[in-house]
Structure formats: structure tokens, C-alpha cells
Specification:
The protein is α+β, with helices and mostly antiparallel strands. The protein is 28% helix and 26% strand.
């Protein structure tokens, strides 16, 4: 429209807005109290049936309560990728009243890029009304004041989602609490922050729980009877679910003298979770279980994960098992998959199994020595020989574990001992995963691989430049294999800083992921690899189970024709879910330890430099594994250059510096538990060392100047 018609339209719209028929602003007008036919929505959760629920992004609270929108998803790969926290451009249809409080149904048009971060914080109430929002993102340590009218019903200590509102183009934005998400201090819920920050589904919809009440009981039809085979579950001492069991015996075939038959039995989750069911949809949304020090957010409801599919001691359970035949040198000759019914002979912890094989069997282990434990260890020694010959990447970095007290506070941080029993279970699980990938390739059935690419040329170049400062070398990319890194790691054991080499090699590696396209697994030095052994906690394994059932004709509940075209989008979604879980777990650990250290400000700690950036140093404390930051601005004795190739900050005046892996002493200056942030002061003087060509390093780095000399310039 143009000319007089445009002027007339503007006048009509203004009159309608003035008398309340229309609402909105100059750019967005709509019928008051209603949403336009096409708008942008944000997915906020799910209803009792598991359907996604959303809220409109543009809404004036003066028009009343923000309406609820149900998202209608199709089977297209694009819709399959929509989850909680996503923003979607959608076409809306008004629903009749009484539709469970849902006013509209949305058909997605396009998923929009995710906002960089949800605006979340901890509300701290003021006695005078209102309060402040403490940050939970340590990259954005900014507090926001909250006026009494903007509290949104939040209570002191609540985790809240807030919005920044700007009234006018040049006005300073202020915060308004949009939603209260619970109190992280209640009932050991510090992980609540990470759960909401990353949009991790927490509670199961009512429809999913109801579906769990009507699951089909397993029968022996089509199953092999494995109930007399003394299969053992060997897990952490506090494990709540047990989805894998192992057994080994000498092969009686004279053509395989000294060989072994190893059986790995995995809980038959596919029997209970059928494709397209509500439980299946929920598991796919979650992607995997998430393990926090204060709780577990499981992929499957407790009825399945801790009961029906948990391989409990002396209880019958359906399973999918692989029987593998190894020769005396640990090389696999062949394997077969069966669907069976098993009965675990014993539930053992890693420590209990290790003690038994070291000559200190418990009363439970004593009758199992000859028929289960001794053959299992003998088979492992043979398979371990083949593993060492294969030469997987041998990065055995210690993992710290947080133990909480009854109030959910950190009692202590421990580094569990790495036992041979751990390696035994890991190696047999790897062999079972390889067997699954081989079978599906042989049957020409699509599958989701677990792949791990070789280090990128850029990362390899940086690693090579760093190792040259220590007179060490790694081959070029064309001839690169994991054993090359193992050679470097072995040489590093003679150096004062072996952990430094391990840390840098770890950082040079690519990230493993799921994909239907096979590129092999560099770290394990395997041509093909797929996850098969943990379907209780990983959706990828459930997909592989279904593929095996279909490929081998083991039942009617295998991979469906509808699932096959979606494998690429499913693989991407569960890879994203895995990264989301890792970030959430790491952030929760940081918050717990920051809270643990909050009353120790001013105390001196021993630590090690765990990261070097242009802006400062990251230091990891030896006792707790806590990570803290030292801004480069606080290193005022010199002004420092970031030498990227050497992973170091080097003083331009003295030539002394700080390098990744250096042992240092620091003082704690500040702890922000809600953000998991710690700030340290460096107490250890910079040391001289071989940092490579300082001038060449400076040309590619940003020069940092601080102290009196810097201020004068």
C-alpha cells in the first residue's frame, strides 16, 4: 500500500490500538489477547503426554497471562531436532477452550539458532524489597538489581530465569524475573542450575510413567537359555543399575588350544522400549543419562533402568548376548549374537573382584573362583596382549570423584584407584562393541557408529611445535597412529612433568561422536566401532540393539523402516546431548567445589597450571581438582607475551614465564559458588625455560603490558 491508502491504514490501526481492539507496538500489532497466525515461540517443557510445550516470545503482560502453545511435531528430521530451550518460527492454530489449558497448537516452520545462553541466576532478596541476581555463568560475572515489582514471586535463593528489558533506545536495561525454577540449596540440588541452564529434561511425563506400567513381560520364546551360565556383573560399588555381565571359559575345541570363549550379556532394553512409543520418544529426547555428584538424571524411567533391565543378582532377565571366541594370543576368531534369558551369578564391585584375583576372595567370590573369576582373568590377559599389539592411545589420566555428606556438601574429593578389574571390563566391552559393528556391516544394515577422528592438522602442528621445545617429536599426519603418541608418553615418564605431556596430547585430540558414516576410531585404533553395551544409559546403544535384532531376525521389535532415514539426525542429536551432559556435569562439579572453598578465601594452595590463554592462567588445585583463574593483569612483576606454541606466558623483560603443567603455589582471592568460579593470586615466581623463539611467538600473539611501566605508556 502507498500514498493515501497507507495513511488511512495507519489511522485505522492507531484507532484500533487506542480503543483496545489491537495490542502490540509499532512493529508488531495483533488482536488483543490473541497471537498472530505466525510467530516465534520458545519451547519451555513438556506436558504429561510428553508433547513439547512453548510460550510466545513476543507478549505484553498487560494483556494477561502468556498463552501456552503445544508443538505438533512430524516425523521429519528437522522436527526431530527440536527440544527444550529451542526457539521456533511456527504457524499457530487456535484450540477450543478446555484443552488442558493449551490455547494454541504450533506447526514448526523453521528452527531458529539457539540463544547463546539462557539468562539464569540466583535471586538474593533484600530486606528492603527487591534484591539482586547472582550470575551462574563464570564467563559473565555480572549481577543485576531487581526492583520489588520485578521479583515475579521468587524467594531468596531461588534459581530464576530473567529477562532484560530496555525502555527506550538509550535506556539502561533492567532485569525482570520471568520464572522461578526452584532452590538449588534444597534437598541436595546444586545440579538444578546446570539442568536448567542446559535445558536437560528432568521429570518424566505422566504418560511415559503410565506406559511403564503396561510393558510386555519377557518369555523364553526365541531366546537361548543362559540361566545356568555363571555370568558376573562387575560395577562400581555404588552402582544402582547393572546392564552388562561377563563370563569366560577355556575353548574345548582342539583347533583352538589355549583359546577362550567370552560371553558378554547386555540387558535387552529393546524388548521393553518399542520404536515410536512414548518411552522411546522420551529416551531419544534425553539421549543419555546425566550423572551428577548429587543426583542422576536417567535416560529411562526407574522402573526400567533400576528394575526390569537391571541384571540383578540371581534374578532372571532378558538379554542380548555376544559369544566371542579368542585364540591363545587374544585375537578374535569369530563371534555370534543371541537373544537370551540370563540369571546373574553374582554382583561384584571392582574392588571385590580385584581382591579375589589377588588371593583375597570374599565369601561370595570363593565359590566363583574356578568357574568364573579365574577363567575371566586368564581370558583378559590374552585379550590384553592383542590390545597392546593393536596399540590404542594410552592416556590414563586420573579422574577425581566428589563424595557428598548428608547435607549435599562436599565431604571429600578422591581419586579412585585404577584397577586391573576396570581394564578387564573395558576391554571386553570394547570387543563386544566391535563385534556389533562388524555384524551390522556384514548384514549391510545402516547403523550409528561411534567415531573418533585423528587430530586435525592445526592441532597437530601446535602439538609438534610444543614438543620441539622439549626436544621431542611426533610423526607427521600421514604416518600418524596412536602408538606414536604412546611413544611420546613413555618418553615423558623420564621428564619432570609427565602430566604436562599427557595434558597437551589430550587437548590435541578430536572429540568422539555418533554418525552413520564410518571414519574409524583413532583413539582405540579400530577400523569400525559402535556402542552396544549400555542401552540403559545411551540411546545410541538402543539403536544398535534394534539394528542387530532386525539384521539377525531375533524378533519383531528391531529397527524399523521409519527409523533408518532418521539415523543421521538421531546421531547428531545424541552427540549434542552427550556434549550437553559433559558440560553440565563439569559445571556442577565446579559449583560444588567452589562452595566447598568459599570459606577458605586467603588460604594458600598447591596447584598446577592447567590452561594458558592470552588473558591469563587457569590453575588446578592438587587436593580438590578445583579450577581457578589468574588474570594476566595480576602478574604485575613483568609484562607478558602469550607464546601459543609453548603453551606459556613469558615476560618480555626477564624471559621467565609460566607454562602449562608447571607446579605453582596460589592464594584464593574470591569464590563465587553459584558460578563455580574461583580467582587466585600467583605466589610462585616465573621460571626461566625453553619457550622457543620468543620474537616469533610474539609476532603471532597479543602483547600484554601491566604494572607501572605499562601505565606510563
Amino acid at each position: 500500500m502507498s500514498g493515501g491508502a497507507r495513511i488511512a491504514l495507519k489511522r485505522i490501526l492507531a484507532e484500533m490500538a487506542e480503543d483496545g481492539t489491537l495490542a502490540g507496538d509499532k512493529k508488531h500489532l495483533h488482536e488483543k489477547g490473541k497471537l498472530p497466525s505466525v510467530t516465534t515461540i520458545e519451547v519451555t517443557g513438556r506436558d504429561s503426554d510428553g508433547d513439547l510445550i512453548a510460550k510466545p516470545l513476543q507478549w505484553d503482560e498487560k494483556e494477561g497471562k502468556r498463552p501456552t502453545v503445544r508443538v505438533a511435531l512430524s516425523k521429519s528430521p528437522a522436527d526431530n531436532d527440536i527440544g527444550i530451550g529451542d526457539r521456533v518460527l511456527a504457524r499457530l492454530a487456535k484450540l477450543p477452550r478446555g484443552n488442558d489449558g493449551v490455547a494454541y497448537e504450533a506447526t514448526p516452520i523453521k528452527k531458529l539458532p539457539r540463544e547463546k545462553r539462557r539468562l539464569l541466576g540466583i535471586f538474593r532478596a533484600s530486606k528492603r524489597g527487591g534484591g539482586t541476581i547472582e550470575p551462574i555463568d563464570r564467563k559473565e560475572l555480572k549481577s543485576w538489581p531487581i526492583l520489588p515489582d520485578d521479583m515475579g514471586g521468587a524467594s531468596d535463593g531461588d534459581l530464576v530465569r530473567f529477562e532484560l528489558i530496555r525502555k527506550g533506545r538509550f535506556a539502561t536495561p533492567h532485569a525482570h524475573i520471568a520464572e522461578s525454577l526452584g532452590n538449588p540449596d534444597d534437598q541436595r540440588q546444586i545440579s538444578l542450575i546446570a539442568i536448567h541452564a542446559h535445558g536437560i529434561p528432568e521429570d518424566f511425563p505422566e504418560s511415559v510413567l503410565k506406559e511403564c506400567e503396561h510393558l510386555p513381560p519377557p518369555t523364553m520364546q526365541g531366546r537361548e537359555d543362559l540361566r545356568e551360565l555363571p555370568l558376573l556383573t562387575i560395577d562400581p560399588i555404588d552402582a544402582r543399575d547393572h546392564d552388562d555381565a561377563v563370563h569366560a571359559e577355556l575353548d574345548s575345541n582342539p583347533r583352538n588350544e589355549g583359546g577362550f570363549i567370552v560371553t558378554v550379556a547386555i540387558a535387552d532394553v529393546a524388548h521393553y522400549i518399542r520404536p515410536g512409543s512414548k518411552i522411546d520418544r522420551e529416551a531419544q529426547v534425553r539421549g543419555n543419562s546425566v550423572y551428577f555428584p548429587d543426583r542422576v538424571v536417567p535416560m529411562l524411567p526407574e522402573k526400567i533402568s533400576n528394575d526390569l533391565c537391571s541384571l540383578r543378582e540371581r534374578e532372571e532377565r532378558p538379554c542380548l548376548a555376544v559369544r566371542m571366541i579368542f585364540d591363545r594370543n587374544g585375537e578374535k576368531r569369530r563371534h555370534t549374537f543371541v537373544r537370551g534369558m540370563m540369571r546373574s551369578a553374582a554382583k561384584l564391585s571392582y574392588q571385590e573382584a580385584q581382591a579375589a584375583i589377588e588371593g583375597k576372595p570374599s565369601d561370595k567370590c570363593l565359590p566363583l573362583m574356578d568357574k568364573a573369576l579365574n577363567p575371566l582373568w586368564a581370558a583378559y590377559k590374552a585379550v590384553a596382549t592383542a590390545r597392546d599389539k593393536r596399540g590404542p592411545l594410552d592416556l590414563d589420566l586420573p579422574e577425581r570423584r566428589i563424595e557428598l555428606d548428608e547435607k549435599g556438601k562436599v565431604a571429600r574429593v578422591v581419586t579412585p584407584e585404577r584397577l586391573e578389574a576396570h581394564r578387564l571390563i573395558e576391554e571386553f566391552m570394547i570387543q563386544a562393541n566391535v563385534a556389533a559393528a562388524e555384524t551390522l556391516e556384514e548384514k549391510k544394515l545402516p547403523l550409528v557408529y561411534r567415531v573418533h577422528d585423528a587430530p586435525s592438522p592445526e592441532k597437530l602442528k601446535g602439538l609438534r611445535e610444543f614438543l620441539e621445545t622439549l626436544d621431542m617429536k611426533v610423526p607427521h599426519a600421514g604416518a600418524l597412529k596412536p602408538e606414536a603418541f604412546n611413544t611420546v608418553l613413555e618418553q615423558a615418564k623420564t621428564l619432570p612433568v609427565p602430566d604436562l605431556i599427557s595434558e597437551v596430547i589430550l587437548r590435541s585430540q578430536s572429540q568422539a561422536e555418533y554418525t552413520p558414516k564410518n571414519i574409524g576410531h583413532f583413539g582405540l585404533n579400530l577400523v569400525r566401532y559402535a556402542h552396544f553395551t549400555s542401552p540403559i544409559r545411551r540411546y545410541a546403544d538402543l539403536i544398535v540393539h534394534r539394528a542387530l535384532i532386525r539384521a539377525l531376525g531375533l524378533g519383531p521389535d528391531g529397527l524399523t523402516d521409519d527409523e533408518i532415514p532418521l539415523l543421521a539426525s538421531i546421531a547428531k542429536a545424541i552427540s549434542d546431548a552427550e556434549r550437553r551432559a559433559m558440560a553440565a556435569e563439569r559445571e556442577t562439579t565446579d559449583r560444588l567445589i567452589a562452595a566447598h572453598l568459599a570459606d577458605r578465601v586467603g588460604v594458600t594452595f598447591a596447584g598446577r597450571i592447567a590452561g594458558v590463554t592470552r588473558s591469563g592462567l587457569f590453575v588446578r588445585l592438587k587436593d580438590t581438582g578445583a579450577d581457578g583463574y589468574i588474570p594476566i593483569s595480576s602478574l604485575s612483576d613483568d609484562y607478558y607475551h602469550h607464546i601459543e606454541a609453548a603453551h606459556a606466558l613469558v615476560g618480555a623483560r626477564t624471559g621467565a614465564g609460566y607454562r602449562l603443567g608447571d607446579n605453582v603455589e596460589v592464594r584464593l582471592l574470591e569464590a563465587i559458588p553459584s558460578a563455580g568460579a574461583l580467582r587466585f593470586e600467583m605466589l610462585t615466581p616465573a621460571a626461566r625455560g625453553n619457550f622457543g623463539d620468543l620474537k616469533a611467538g610474539v609476532r603471532g600473539s597479543r602483547r600484554r603490558k601491566f604494572g607501572k611501566a605499562a601505565r606510563r605508556q
